[in-house]
Specification:
The complex is a heterodimer of chains A (98) and B (404).
Chain A lengths: L8 E3 L3 E6 L2 E6 L11 E4 L1 H7 L8 H11 L4 H17 L3 E3 L1
Helix pairs in contact in A: 2-3
Chain B lengths: L2 E2 L2 E2 L8 E4 L16 E5 L3 E2 L10 E2 L3 H6 L3 H13 L4 E5 L9 H10 L3 E6 L6 H9 L6 E4 L5 H8 L4 H14 L4 E6 L8 H9 L10 E3 L11 H10 L3 H10 L1 H14 L16 E3 L4 E3 L11 E2 L5 H12 L7 H5 L14 H8 L7 H13 L15 H6 L8
Parallel strand pairs in B: 4-7, 4-12, 5-6, 7-8, 8-9, 9-10, 10-11
Antiparallel strand pairs in B: 1-2, 12-13, 13-14
Classes of the chains: A alpha+beta (98), B alpha/beta (404).
């Protein structure tokens, strides 16, 4: 499935996202998330900034607009990051496309 | 890759998502978590009555059961430790599966985003529980204690007729549902003939393909100091110093680890009693007491979590307890000056179990440590660890190397 900015994505119900020591930690809850059952994931600062906007009610395009207003970067650069992160998360089943 | 207030957040990333080296409890930036693991003893009751056990109470002990933490209390503790950044909870006992609310507690823990280690004898594993572990994996492993490879030997150790059959059924269920587990067992003399069979069977378990089973052999006395008669039995079951050395020499990997350990963690500890990891994490007993470590149940060193928050225990009570110094002249003459500290299991918990004080040298562990040190070439035949002044030279060049 090709991701587009018109899509809406939401964290999977099969993970738990926690913030520990200012770091975002993704804990798989069910089998089949990520590569192995015992792995945890974290994100770089770019990923974390995007993740905080993935509320399941906002399109990726709107998230790009929000982040463009928040950060000093062009919408093209931010859109590339948003699609890049979401592609990784969808592949690992950490987020789902609604 | 974008910036805020003139600061770049990230260099151009290759990936946005990173795996955490969770076994070292380090977050993505290499920082340790504040509270990496908490041990929770859900009950002291057990459906086994193992001859070497330091804690078990009968499974139908109504008094113990009535004093155990309620489901809501356990959930409150779990919520608090999750808020402190805890990543892993180890449920132990007694037999934790004796609690009728185990599945509820397990699911609650996992939904808080914490992983679970479960110590069990597997006798109470049901198809429903195995299916639950398959559907919502622990995120870590189940450790199954194995007390023999026949019903005769297993039931003799477990003190319970029919226990072996239930244990086998339990592990078969785990295997059927492909739930990963480790096995471990006590090293008892009358199980010696079954050791090969045990290790061969362990190798057939997928999660143990590259890891031999763990053994316990220097058994602890009753950790509540509640059963002098059983203590006498445990004392007889313990590996002798010679048997401990034989076990060490049998396993080249363990020997190598011991040599490396010696070079890193040997040296006189001085009068500081808690130079271990005790109190950096937390252990909680069946009744809601926070302990510096699981076997240390000295009433003076535990804190009732019904009265005090776990946060204050971690930030205030434990750091003070960790400053306790030894005052026993015998300890100060021997243990405080002994460079074999890293080889010796002497610790405040063991001292309390044996003598009811935190700083009494435990003769048994002293003898085992000295036997190992002589085997490793760190000590002469008649030397004692606290008499050696040039210990640094000996540790750097032990007479017995891994190759030797």
């Amino acid at each position: 499935m090709e991701l587009t900015l018109d899509m809406i994505c939401i964290p999977s119900e099969d993970i738990v996202a926690r913030v520990i020591e200012d770091e975002l930690v993704i804990v798989p809850l069910t089998a089949g998330i990520g590569d192995a059952d015992d792995e945890l994931y974290t994100m770089n600062e770019t990923g974390k900034a995007i993740w905080l906007h993935l509320d399941g009610g906002t399109s990726l395009r709107t998230i790009v607009e929000e982040l463009t207003a928040e950060f000093n970067a062009t919408s093209e650069v931010i859109a590339e990051d948003v699609l890049g992160l979401v592609a990784e998360l969808v592949q690992k089943k950490i987020v789902v496309v609604q | 890759m974008f910036e805020k207030e003139g600061m770049m957040i990230d260099e151009a990333p290759m990936t946005y998502v990173k795996k955490i080296n969770s076994h070292e409890f380090l977050l993505g930036h290499g920082k340790p978590t504040l509270l990496s693991q908490v041990d929770i003893e859900l009950t002291e009751r057990c459906n086994n009555n193992c001859i070497h056990c330091c804690i078990n109470l009968p499974e139908d002990d109504a008094d113990a059961e009535s004093r155990e933490m309620s489901t809501d209390f356990v959930k409150g503790i779990l919520t608090e430790i999750a808020s402190q950044g805890c990543l892993t909870v180890r449920f132990t006992g007694g037999e934790p599966l004796l609690r009728s609310d185990f599945s509820e507690i397990y699911l609650f823990t996992r939904r808080l985003g914490m992983r679970v280690i479960l110590f069990t004898n597997a006798r109470l594993i049901t198809p429903e529980l195995a299916e639950l572990f398959a559907r919502i994996p622990l995120g870590n492993l189940i450790e199954v204690s194995v007390y023999g490879m026949t019903s005769e030997s297993y039931d003799r150790v477990a003190g319970c007729v029919g226990a072996y059959g239930e244990f086998r059924r339990g592990v078969e269920l785990l295997q059927h549902y492909q739930v990963p587990f480790f096995v471990k067992g006590p090293k008892l003399r009358f199980l010696q003939d079954e050791q090969e069979e045990f290790e061969a069977w362990a190798k057939t378990i997928p999660s143990m393909e590259h890891q031999p089973p763990g053994y316990s052999m220097n058994f602890e006395l009753r950790s509540r100091r509640d059963d002098p008669l059983k203590n006498r039995t445990i004392t007889k079951l313990r590996a002798t110093p010679e048997e401990s050395v034989a076990m060490l020499s049998r396993d080249p990997l363990a020997l190598e680890e011991m040599v490396v350990f010696c070079s890193n963690f040997i040296g006189p500890p001085g009068d500081t009693l808690f130079d271990c990891g005790a109190g950096h994490g937390c252990c909680i007993d069946s009744y809601g007491h926070a302990q510096l470590c699981l076997p240390l149940r000295d009433p003076e060193s535990v804190v009732n979590l019904h009265d005090v928050s776990l946060k204050s225990v971690l930030e205030e009570a434990f750091p003070v307890m960790r400053q306790i110094k030894a005052t026993n002249p015998d300890y100060l003459r021997r243990c405080a000056r002994c460079f074999l500290k890293g080889l010796c299991e002497q610790c405040p918990a063991k001292s309390w179990m044996e003598y009811g004080t935190l700083d009494t040298p435990v003769e048994y562990f002293c003898e085992v440590a000295h036997a190992k040190a002589r085997f490793l070439g760190l000590l002469g035949a008649d030397e004692m660890g606290w008499e050696v002044e040039n210990w640094r030279e000996r540790v750097e060049r032990p007479a017995r190397s891994v190759e030797g």
